[in-house]
Amino acid sequence: TGHLTRRYSYVGKAWYRKKVVSPYVWRDKDLALYLERTKATKLYLDGHLVDSCNDVSTPQLYRLGKLHPGVHTLTLCVDNGGGVPEQVIKSSHLYSEDTQTNWNGVIGRIEFGPEEAFEGHPATRFFPRLEVVDGRFEANGHPVFLRGKHDACVFPKTGHTPMDKASWDGYFWRCREYGINHVRFHSWCPPEAAFAAADDQGIYLQPELPFWGTLEGEELLSFLRKEGLNILRTYGHHPSFAMFSLGNELSGEVSVMQELVDTFRAEAPHILFTNGTNAFLGYRGYVDGVDFFATLRTRRGAHGER
Q1: Strand 31-38 and strand 60-65: pairing?
Q2: Considering the entire predicted model, what is its pTM?
């Protein structure tokens, strides 16, 4: 009850090996392996460790340098049970079995080729930018009312988020049919295809860091800071990327939350930030330094009071 139940569940390391050909025309190019969405990984080239990576909210890019023409062997280890702070595995919809599964492997694009082919998007500033003016949302000088929905990575048929634009086009089309113009992604960030589809259909998106719980411990904070900057640098050029939250039902030191907000705002000043969705379950009330207040209650008081 309350979780997806797979016939077979596997948590741990999964190994994948494939032979690839580096053609002669690539002899002077720096090559790379691109993994669009995966868990913590290690990559080996011809039996030698290249590097490890724990970018789990954005694509991973392994830089291989120049390779001699011919056949090479890539060996990838994917670990859905380690490589990131334990709190993230236990407390985020990016990993938990509540809605999607804690899948293992790689989804989306898996490509080997010249590194230049995987360069990121320019940091273009759009928007129909969503702004806060006198306590209300506006876009292009017009008031905006957000009628939104909660998305906790609920994909029970596949066990993982779709990575193709057609699926997300259908998802947001159905949202619009219900009059929804805003989607909040509970403790996870959707892939590129979701932002592209939302751009086309005029949906405002609110991704989040992959965490719920208490923001404490340098390992966790360093990981979330890295993930947040990756999310903003990878998807921040999309006009649909309007809002960003530090996570769900967070607690901890307000100063720590504000440091993260300030760091992210400096990276992407065109996006609206908050210190968490339902931070302190609303009992702390509004705090200064955020652009919007996302909460289930506004009453100050002790936790659990009615």
Answers
A1: antiparallel
A2: 0.94
